[in-house]
Target: Alpha/beta fold hydrolase
Amino acid sequence: MFMNVFSNKKKFTLILLSSLLLGIFIFLTNSKPTSSEKNGEITPTVFIHGFKGGPGTFNTMMNRLEQQNVGSKRMVAYVSRQGHVTLRGSLPPNMEPFIQVLFENDRASLKQQTVWLQEVIHRLKKRHGIQQINLVGHSMGGLAATNFLLHYQDGQYPVVQKLAVIASPYKGIKKEGYFEVHSSPAANDLKPESDALKSMILRREFFPKGVDTLVIAGVINSSEEDSDHWDGLVHASSVKGMKSIVPFGSYREEIVFGQSATHSGLHEHPEVDRVLGEFLWEHSIE
Model:
């Protein structure tokens, strides 16, 4: 008899404790937004390096932007040669986070880089609840970002609000002897009239409407002929080729002049910081 009473009390206590814990769980779930729900309110900016680029492409720019209180680098997306994606970092709500994409194979084809970028951005939505992003690409990174948008699928990815490309060669690289030194799938795609570049033009009707787009080109020479203007590697006319892809009303361009406006110098240029600050975040850069 005593054992039965004890057993019944024990069962009652367990049921009461379970009900209490369940009630607390339901209360916390319904009253406190999840991390993913909060992340739906932020707009990370994704930075993509170019051919033979890496951490150094955007590290110092992000540091300068942090010092200007524009935002903060919060995550790095590593893509291995085999295409395995690793996201390191966190995305706290109520801030302007920066996400840096790093391709271990920085000489991969434009098509391959686009597939990898798709996976990175898909994970940002699926695992972190990101609903909208900005994209910034230097050189071939700008091409990859553009190609991503030309193959964009609603529902699979966050909505891209703004795109900024820096020194991206939409009409290829025409520097004499360049492709005698550089040989790789990426280099093949950077040749004028390459299949990869022509394919982007042919798909221009698929570029999403409403994506504000900024094109930045550098000019280091003082030639009177616009066709001769270049950053030491990419001609400004090649960068402006983006105009034939972006829908009317969504395109704007900025030309940075001077000896420091070289192809690799543009992501270190204070004028580029200023233009990006105003375009992406409506923030004045000193």
Observations:
- Residues 1-32 form one domain.
- The chain has two domains: 1-32, 42-281.
- Confidence is low (pLDDT under 50) at residues 1-6, 22-35.
- The radius of gyration is 24 Å.
